[in-house]
Amino acid sequence: MTPAYWVAQVRVHDRAGYAAYRAAAAAPIAAAGGRLLVLGGAPEVVAGTMAPETVIVEFPSLAAARACHHGAGYQATLAGRDAAAEVSLAIVEGHAG
């Protein structure tokens, strides 16, 4: 099975609110088989522009990544996330390599 990823660029405006979102989102992400690979960290931008923080979550499949994002458990966390940060998020299928 080919893994899939959530790749997010994040600008946090409210650290406490964003921490609350992360805590709430952890259970639905884990239930879908999601595994946090990258969280924050100042990027060394070598081309173009990026948000100050990057988040990458790995899922066992594209179906799992989509189901998690569109599922009721994760959707219930979005109001908190959106109040605390600007987020650009893509769901990307991995390379079977």
From TrEMBL:
Species for this entry: Paenirhodobacter hankyongi
Superkingdom classification of source: Bacteria
Listed transmembrane segments: none
DUF1330 domain mapped to chain residues: 3-94
Protein name: DUF1330 domain-containing protein
Pfam families named among the record's database cross-references: DUF1330
